Amino acid sequence: MSIFTFERAHFLGNVRYVDTRRVSVHVSLDEDLRKARVGQLVVLSLPGAAEQWLVGLVDKVMKVPVIEEAASEGSGEAVTPLLGESALNTVRVTLVGTVALGPDNSPKFSRSLVQVPEIDGRCHILTDQQLQTFMGMLSNAGNTEHSLELGRYTIDESAKAFLDGDKLFQRHASLLGSTGSGKSWTVAAILEHAARLPSANLIVFDLHGEYRSLSFARHLRVPGPEDLGKTDPSLLFLPYWLLNAEELQAMFIDRSEFSAHNQVMAFQDAVVAEKKATLTALKKTEVLAAFTLDSPVPFKLSAVIAELERQDREMVPGATKDKQGPFFGQFSRLILRLNSKVSDKRYGFLYHGYDVEGPYDAMSSMVERLMGFSKDGPRIKIIDFSEVPADILPVIVGLVARIIYQVQFWTKRDQRHPLALVCDEAHLYLPKREGLDPVEQRALESFEKIAKEGRKYGVSLLVVSQRPSDVSSTILSQCNNIIALRLTNADDQATVKHLMPETLEGLMESLPILDIGEALVVGDAVLLPTRIRIHPPAEKPLSATIDFWTEWGKEAAQPDFAASVENMRRQHRT
Ligand SMILES: Nc1ncnc2c1ncn2[C@@H]1O[C@H](COP(=O)(O)OP(=O)(O)O)[C@@H](O)[C@H]1O
Ligand SMILES: [Mg+2]
């Protein structure tokens, strides 16, 4: 029995023009042309081979301009093309793969193109039974041990759409779509599937606390002012000594000050001295021999400030009387900045929570909570960054990513377990390069390193954003699979089009008209670049959007504004 049996009703036209992946089909009857729709699948017969078919996606449908039809009147002939394909009833098709009998004699779809179609070869539309046969083939081929069932194909909702979970994470992926297009739900759906695997390891950067509701995950939260002093294991304090030299400088040094260079030098020297003091006290001789300014070794920031204060006021013996020391007055503003940051409760997660005396081992227990996975415990970790002030958000997210990457790097090869970082709202901390302040620059560098080298050490990125045109193109271009949800903004569409193979231009035209929860999935994780309707997750993320009008429509009690004002003064919400 033949794989496909086509009838006249399926016939579209004949091949007129062949490029490597592009084919133009000449359609002689207007009624046949009406069968063709952009995004639809077609099948082209191959010369000689009875059971080999090429499959293509309709990219463009063009009808003869009326003027030329009139011009050809009287000649008695069908329309004569004047200037190539544009003057004919033409359907442009992008070839996507081949259907052929496999070794077990059952039909298989593969993305390779064994042959090009011959001129005048027949082209049929895939509908009804033939479409179901084909989609069944796709689902079967996609349904392997490492498949992730994401949803159903839009062109045939009876067919399950699988992604290859290995390929999706192997070379980074991006999930792009306008606000409200369904990104967070898609993330939740992917997490839900991953959570069923016994040793899954995904870490989600949750910027708005949207994923707080997912019951299968371990929840960590960067503490806000209300949480300082608490010892809840779900609180993720990120002590300042985890910051490397560049991150510390980005936070404290103002490059525009004339003494910036001296500030950096004195600050670094004091930090090294204090780190050394910690290591000496703990008798960590091996670490002492190898540590650098960047090593995550606890130190007393108060001692660093005291040292800077000393130098800032230092008097040295002069010829006749004491004169001002070499740095006299140069560090006053730095000290002011340090002190105001340390006492600002919004930055409390950096400066409180850990005492300097005992935290040496605290880092490993923190890493355990971040990166650990166990068969019985949660394997999906969600870090809530919603309390982190926006001005330092990039450094803090970048810091967590860097620690994870470095720990993975320093883990013995045979113990290394692959993990994925899900970067929601990536435009907030992975911005384009132009005009970045040092704080943003640091975060970007951490992630760019992961994008470029993470694969070697089993660290994958899933970059999620509503503003792809604002996200670092270095990072986006490293993402081999793209899940594109509805995108309405023209700049964002252009960015996504730029990331996709050129042959899929036609498909990209549907970006602004996709339904909510509907995505174009392109990359090596899918067999067919096409529209997929994503299954809603069983557990829904919380919506980050406040329904103003609805809230205004309800009865509500007045907040205690006097208390709010007092909270503001003492930096503590009660
Ligand atoms: N796969 C889906 N199926 C059906 N509805 C969805 C789907 N994904 C999202 N939605 C709807 O769209 C709303 C916004 O989705 P959300 O994931 O929060 O968008 P985004 O994160 O892109 O802003 C959801 O509250 C839900 O009502
Ligand atoms: Mg969202």
If you had to describe this structure to a student in words, what would you say it looks like?
The structure is a single chain. The protein is of the alpha/beta class. The protein folds into three domains: 8-142, Beta Barrel (Elongation Factor Tu (Ef-tu), domain 3); 160-233 and 361-543, Rossmann fold (3-Layer(aba) Sandwich); 245-336, no CATH class. The protein contains 19 helices and 20 strands. The strands form three sheets. The chain has an eleven-stranded mixed sheet with strand order 9-8-20-19-18-10-17-16-11-15-12. A six-stranded antiparallel barrel has the order 1-2-5-4-3-7. It has a two-stranded antiparallel sheet with strand order 13-14. The radius of gyration is 30 Å and the shape is elongated. It starts with 10 loop residues before the first strand and ends with a helix.
Write a short abstract of this structure.
The chain has 574 residues and is α/β, with parallel strands linked by helices. The chain has helices at residues 30-33, 66-71, 128-142, 165-170, 183-194, 245-252, 260-281, 285-290, 301-313, 332-343, 348-351, 362-371, 393-410, 438-453, 473-477, 490-499, 505-508, 548-552, 561-570, and strands at 11-18, 22-26, 41-45, 52-62, 90-101, 107-110, 122-125, 147-153, 160-164, 173-176, 202-206, 217-221, 315-316, 323-324, 380-384, 419-423, 459-465, 481-484, 518-522, 530-534.
